[in-house]
Specification:
about 280 residues, single chain, 7 helices
Length: about 280
C-alpha cells in the first residue's frame, strides 16, 4: 500500500466511442493518467494524446477473451505499476440487432440464445470480468470502479429483452462487488446517464428525438467526481449524470437497485429511445 498520494491512473473501456473520447479527455484534464481500451488500434487516432503532462495510452483488446483482459492488465502494470480507477463504458444496444429497432421493436420470437449471450457478454460479463482481473492492481489503498448502466425505464421497455437483462445483470454484479469490497478502500458504483446519449448507439432521424439527446460531455463531471480520492460514500450507489451537480453531488445518488422513476421522469410520457 502506498504511503503517499500518486497520480490517479484510470482505465476507460469503449474509449473510441462518443462517451469514451469525452471521458478520456476530461480525465486527462482532471489530472489522470488514462489507459484507453479500444477494439481496434486504428480508432485510437481520435483519442486525446496528452493534457497537462498526463498520458493517454491506448491498448487494443477484445475483452471477451482472457488474452484481452491480460493485455489491459499488462499495459497498466508495465506503464504505471498501479491503478486507481476503472470506467466500464463499452456496451451494445438494440441497434446492434437492427438499425430500425425503434420503429420495429425486436419481438421475443426474434431473440435467440446467441443474441442473449452476446448482450450479456458485452454489457455485463466483460465489465465484471475486467474489474475482477484488475483488482490486484489497486495497490494505493483506495480506488473507484464506475460501471455505466442505464435507466429503470430502459430495463422495463418492451422490445428490449437482451439490453434490459444485460444492464440489470451489470447492476446486480456491481451491488454484490460493492459489498464484497467494503473496507478495502475500493468503491463500486453504477453511473446512469439519465436518458439517451447522443452517440451512434442512439442514432435516429427524428428531429424531436435528437433534440432530447444528452450530450456525451454531461458524463464527464460526475465520472471525474466519482473517481476522485476525496469522493467517499459512493460504494454500492447509483449516480444519475443528468441530476449531478458540483454544488450538491449527493442529490444524484441512490442505492443500486432502487427504483429510479423520479430520475427517469423526463422520459415518462413517451417511449424511451434506449441507451
Amino acid at each position: 500500500m502506498s504511503t503517499f498520494q500518486r497520480t490517479p491512473v484510470t482505465v476507460v473501456t469503449g474509449a473510441a466511442g462518443g462517451i469514451g473520447r469525452c471521458l478520456c479527455a476530461g480525465l486527462l484534464e482532471a489530472g489522470h493518467e488514462v489507459v484507453a481500451v479500444v477494439r481496434s488500434i486504428a480508432s485510437a487516432t481520435a483519442l486525446p494524446v496528452a493534457a497537462l503532462g498526463r498520458r493517454c495510452v491506448a491498448v487494443e483488446a477484445d475483452l471477451a477473451t482472457v488474452g484481452g483482459l491480460d493485455a489491459v492488465r499488462g499495459v497498466v502494470a508495465s506503464e504505471f505499476g498501479y491503478l486507481t480507477g476503472l470506467v466500464n463504458n463499452a456496451g451494445i444496444g438494440m441497434g446492434s440487432i437492427r438499425a430500425d429497432y425503434y420503429k420495429r421493436p425486436v419481438r421475443p420470437q426474434e431473440i435467440d440464445a446467441a443474441i442473449l449471450e452476446r448482450f450479456l457478454m458485452v454489457n455485463a460479463q466483460v465489465p465484471m470480468a475486467l474489474a475482477l482481473h484488475l483488482l490486484l492492481l489497486f495497490t494505493e489503498g483506495w480506488g473507484r470502479i464506475v460501471n455505466v448502466g442505464t435507466s429503470l425505464t430502459a430495463m422495463l421497455r418492451p422490445g428490449f429483452i437482451p439490453y434490459a437483462m444485460s444492464k440489470a445483470a451489470l447492476e446486480s454484479g456491481s451491488a454484490v462487488l460493492a459489498r464484497d469490497l467494503e473496507g478495502s478502500g475500493v468503491e463500486v458504483c453504477v453511473l446512469n446517464p439519465g436518458g439517451s446519449v447522443a452517440t451512434p448507439m442512439a442514432k435516429r432521424d427524428e428531429e424531436e428525438y435528437r433534440a432530447r439527446l444528452i450530450a456525451p460531455e454531461v458524463m464527464v463531471s460526475p465520472v471525474c467526481w466519482a473517481l476522485a480520492r476525496t469522493t467517499e460514500g459512493i460504494n454500492g450507489k447509483r449516480i444519475t449524470a443528468t441530476r449531478w451537480s458540483a454544488a450538491y453531488p449527493e442529490a444524484s445518488l441512490a442505492p443500486i437497485g432502487w427504483p429510479q422513476l423520479a430520475n427517469d421522469s423526463a422520459w415518462a410520457t413517451g417511449p424511451y429511445p434506449g441507451n
